[in-house]
Amino acid sequence: MHIAIEIDRRTALHGIMALLGATAVAGCGYVPGSDARATLDEGQLKLLDLVADTIIPQTDTPGAAEAGVPKRLAAMYTDWASDETRKALSGALDRIGKAARAATGKDFAALSPDERLAFLRDHEAAALKPVPPKPGAPKGTFIAPVVSVADVGYHTLKQLIVGLYFSSEIGLTQELIYEHVPGPWQPSIPVAPGMRPFATLGPF
């Protein structure tokens, strides 16, 4: 049985835009009533780097940091995200930092990679715990489903990190198998240990 993950770049990017609550026009990152652009602060940027690296670390393929995911997400936070999404992302990062200090007595940045992973696993289990939807909550769509979890901000943060990684050149060509022009039709393809999923439809 051949198992493939089919990722359409355009659909993935549309999903990312929906998560960000994107507007139709770029460059909308100004704080209402001021000339200041809405950005993540220095501490949040550092935390974003480390969280992304913990979720998708470098192994035998480049991780989220090497793929430029934190920089792209920070830029989209400023130029594309809605005020509601900015609040959700900033809140999620702040809660990670606060929870890490409460659980370990250290800043997230002061933890070793193994300690970050152990902490984030526990934090994620609590953050993504399903909760009943709020009364009157919209049903959502396939591209932008309504999520009912304890920490929607963390869910959005992780979805964006993963989505940006697998829509990057590194994610598509090094983590996945990309075949721009598939070869001849192959009705059955054996799956070998360690075989990477296809970014496209795979061999025909």
Commentary on this structure:
With 204 residues, the protein is mainly α. The protein has helices spanning 9-20, 42-55, 69-79, 83-104, 113-127, 152-166, 169-175. It starts with 8 loop residues before the first helix and ends in a 29-residue tail after the last helix.
Helix-strand layout with pairing:
Blueprint (H helix, E strand, L loop, with lengths): L8 H12 L21 H14 L13 H11 L3 H22 L8 H15 L24 H15 L2 H7 L29
Helix pairs in contact: 1-6, 2-3, 3-6, 4-6
Q: With helices defined by DSSP (H or I, 4 residues minimum), what is the helix count?
A: 7
Mean pLDDT score, rounded? Answer: 81
Percent range of helical residues: 40-55%
> How do the SSEs run, as a string of H and E?
HHHHHHH
**Largest sheet, strands/sense/barrel:** none
Tally of extended strands? 0
The secondary-structure class comes to mainly alpha
Task: Report the sheet-strand fraction.
Answer: under 5%
Principal-axes shape call: globular
- C-alpha termini separation: 14 Å
Fill in the keyword field for this structure.
7 helices, 204 residues, disordered N terminus, globular, mainly alpha
Describe what is shown at a glance.
Helices cover 47% and strands 0% of the residues. It has helices at residues 9-20, 42-55, 69-79, 83-104, 113-127, 152-166, 169-175. It starts with 8 loop residues before the first helix and ends in a 29-residue tail after the last helix.
